[in-house]
UniProtKB/TrEMBL annotation:
PANTHER family linked: ABC TRANSPORTER ATP-BINDING PROTEIN, ABC TRANSPORTER ATP-BINDING PROTEIN NATA
Localization in the cell: Cell membrane
Entry's family note: Belongs to the ABC transporter superfamily.
Primary site of residence: membrane
Protein origin, superkingdom: Bacteria
Organism of origin: Plantactinospora endophytica
Designated name of the protein: ABC transporter
Database matches in Pfam families: ABC_tran
SMART domains given in the database record: AAA
């Protein structure tokens, strides 16, 4: 392990494609045992960063150290200690569920008998033991994703990279994946994930960076980011009629911050109910009112002026 328990260290890390800069000089420290997230909208540069960490795409500039090693020089040694769960499932449809694991194990030189034992354990872990002899094709999206996670664990990696682990899954399948990832974290595996789902980041990540346009715009724990960049509560008001903008002026002084979106107005306040009472006291009659806790979505909106998922 590298000094201070930092497993991944990036300094001024850059990825350019021709004259387009996808990752624009980011600094990152991922510590042993934590779940670390890259949160940002499509195109923020999350996957490009992950591919550099996974040693499949060389950095254009800057420094990157993984477990104290240099991806430019030590790619194979690093990859031997990483597990990778790519954004798109690339399981082998010709093979059974079990064979997808045992065949993958061969790339790491794991003896056949050990590979079979490990495959059985991993299929148990991802709750696919009953499907061991099934082909991959008929599996649901959630099962395929869990199998991809199992495959990423075949070499008993210290770090597991997960690129959008639950994109495209239904809520129940997502929860099952989250639950397994949480279990992995409890076992001491370091998780690095990208996501554009703020609930996923809040559920899983001990710390995260918010990325936008190739840059890191904020970093911290979900709680710390919310405390720093948002208020305790948010009131969402929807006014009937063509424009929310027309009502915004009537809300002056009512909140620490007001965001006017095309379909609603957000009031950032410490006490949502008190703010709602004040809205009514001003004889305003929104078509709907919702009081909720602040989330990472609010952090993102504050930092970039845009919503995370359009
Ligand atoms: N091989 C490539 N050649 C040219 N441009 C690329 C390449 N890979 C990525 N890009 C561009 O770099 C930018 C960042 O892409 P990246 O995939 O890293 O973003 P992301 O945050 O992971 O978003 P997504 O959720 O869509 O994967 C995008 O504008 C993308 O079009």
């Amino acid at each position: 392990m590298a000094k201070d328990g930092v497993l991944i260290q990036a300094r001024g890390l850059v990825k350019r494609f021709a004259d387009f800069t996808a990752v624009d000089g980011i600094d990152v420290d991922v510590r042993a045992g934590e779940a670390f997230g890259f949160l940002g909208p499509n195109g923020a540069g999350k996957s490009s960063t992950m591919r550099m960490v996974g040693c499949v795409s060389p950095p254009t500039a800057g420094e990157l150290k993984i477990m104290g090693m240099d991806p430019r020089r030590d790619g194979p040694a690093i990859r031997a200690r990483l597990g990778v769960c790519p954004q798109l499932d690339n399981l082998d449809p010709e093979l059974t569920v079990r064979e997808n694991l045992t065949t993958y194990a061969r790339y790491f030189g794991i003896p056949r008998r050990v590979a079979r034992e490990r495959a059985a354990e991993l299929l148990d872990f991802v709750q696919l033991a009953e499907r061991a002899n099934s082909k991959v094709e008929p599996l649901s999206g959630g099962m395929k994703r869990r199998l991809t996670i199992a495959r990423a664990l075949v070499n008993e990696p210290e770090i597991v990279l997960l690129d959008e682990p639950t994109t495209g899954l239904d809520p129940q399948a997502r929860h099952l994946v989250w639950e397994r990832l949480f279990r992995l974290k409890q076992q001491g595996v370091t998780l690095v994930l990208t996501t554009h789902y703020m609930d996923e980041a809040e559920q899983l990540c001990d710390r995260l960076v918010v990325m936008d346009g190739g840059k890191i715009v904020a970093e911290g724990s979900p709680r710390a980011l919310i405390d720093r960049y948002s208020t305790r509560e948010v009131v969402e008001l929807r006014f009937a009629g063509e424009s929310q903008e027309a009502f915004a002026g009537k809300l002056a002084g009512l909140a620490e911050r007001v965001e006017v979106l095309p379909d609603r107005i957000l009031l950032y306040v410490a006490d949502g109910d008190a703010a709602v009472a004040e809205v009514h006291a001003r004889a305003l009659t929104p078509a709907s009112v919702l009081v909720r806790r602040s989330s990472l979505e609010d952090v993102f909106l504050h930092l970039t002026g845009r919503t995370l998922v359009d």
